[in-house]
Amino acid sequence: MVNLSVWPLRILNKVGQPSWLSDRLEACLTFGEKMKVVKFGGSSVANAEQISKVIGIVTADMDRRIVVVSAPGKRNKADTKVTDLLIALADAVIEGRDFEADLNAVVDRYAEIQRDLKLPEEVVATIETDLRGRITSRGKNDAQFMDAMKAAGEDCNARVIAEAFTKAGSPAKYVNPGEAGMLLSDDFGNAQVLDESFEKLSSLKGAKEIVIFPGFFGVTKGGEVATFPRGGSDITGAILAAAVKADVYENFTDVDSVCAMDPRVIDNPPAIDCMTYREMRELAYAGFGVFHDEAIIPAVHASIPICIKNTNNPEAPGTMVVPKRAPGERTVVGISSASGFCGIYIDKYMMNREVGFGRRLLQILEEEGISFEHTPSGIDNISVILASENISNKKEGLVVERIKAELAPDAVTVEHGLALIMVVGEGMHYTPGMAAKATKAFSEAGVNLEMINQGASEISMMFAVKDDDREKAIRALGTAFFDL
Ligand code: ASP
């Protein structure tokens, strides 16, 4: 296991605070009534200026008691995230190359933060010692080593940020995920939280100082550092929010709110002020990028409301993601789209009378190891929509041959280059004419529809169009549903 105990005792005592502060802690810190878990993404903690904003945001609200931080992200468009620098460093070590330049690139990022926040110089030396310790204690398992290196980004940043809070007069303590009970499966790079973690982590609720918790990693039962998939600090925040039964999970990023449509396609799309978990899931399925829907599952299971907010404009109310919203508010909440799909269309006269046709079709896909997205069907036809990345040319040929041989269809065709468009809103369930509104918009814009599918839950409508028509289709829907 990586030795994380090298942090200077001169700076921190064993509970992670400067000892001169210990006595003052209880006296000067009164938390609010509620419990908020707050997560700051990479761009929110990329440099001293951003970290100072974080301190301002957390201390402005006494309910913000548990703070999850990412590794320093990009300071500008051309910059590299510390996690990517750490991956390059780990690769150099694994491949036996000289890694000094890669190591310095990481250390320099923290040195800049230390300098600008005027923290003690030892902070940087300690980070370098920590990184070298991770490298020298490397075992045989490269995936395990890679995770130990990736985790350093969040781990070092959390320690630096805890120092910065305390220096600014708001006592905070770094909490080590392993010691706090963030137990993960040993799928390195793709770990999952173990159920028993929630009980263990619930004790964070009693912390007397602001807790600074590094995102993205935990430890296996064997004590090895393991990370979630990339972007996994969101998962850490959701787990902590569920564990301490937070009143809200605030996820700070760099946008004022989630947009109802893709701002790269539509100028000034409306903001979403409130949506349900289900709406977010449906929108995220087709390319809604603010955060990954699966990342927040623990918060969803515990029914914790999530608020997406902007570190650079914390006064903006942000977007709430909640279990339920009142009917009557906004019928359609958002419209999203994604490219990279293909469809297999099968025609057979009297298909509706042939018992087991659908099962046998899907069985062919199952036996070829291909997952499918949708299967809209008519009386004499059925189509299967697949993500193109899940079916190679070779597999496609094989599947078509099997369909012909085993299902004796009148025709089988495969169409590539499809995009899916999702129109999402809980209110669609009660509102007549929604499909007509969309199809009218498509026909007026000259967009040919390849397929329509209304989910059984009736909170979304899905349209497949040719990729080339995608932007035109989205603009048409923007006009129809949001008067854009
Ligand atoms: N730092 C990690 C990444 O870049 C995790 C995160 O920021 O959420 O993927």
The main pleated sheet reads as:
8 strands, mixed
Mean pLDDT figure: 91
Known CATH architecture of the largest domain: 3-Layer(aba) Sandwich
Outline, from the CA principal axes? globular
Q: Find the structural class using helix and strand composition.
A: alpha/beta
Alpha carbon gyration radius: 26 Å
Spans of at least 5 consecutive residues with low confidence: 1-29
Sequence of strands across the biggest β-sheet = 3-4-2-1-7-11-12-10
Number-wise, the strands total 17
Distinct bound molecules: aspartic acid
Number of helices: 15
Question: DSSP strand (E) fraction?
Answer: 15-25%
CATH topology of the largest domain: Carbamate kinase
Helical fraction: 25-40%
Write out key terms for the chains shown:
about 475 residues; alpha/beta; Carbamate kinase; VC0802-like; eight-stranded mixed sheet; 15 helices; globular; disordered N terminus; binds aspartic acid
Could you characterize the architecture of this molecule?
The structure is a single chain. This protein is α/β, with parallel strands linked by helices and 484 residues long. It has two domains: 6-325, Carbamate kinase (3-Layer(aba) Sandwich); 334-482, 2-Layer Sandwich (VC0802-like). 37% of the residues lie in helices and 20% in strands. The strands form four sheets. The chain has an eight-stranded mixed β-sheet with strand order 3-4-2-1-7-11-12-10, with helices on both faces. A hairpin with an 8-residue loop joins strand 11 and strand 12. The protein is globular, with a radius of gyration of 26 Å. 45% of the residues are buried. Bound molecules: aspartic acid (ASP).
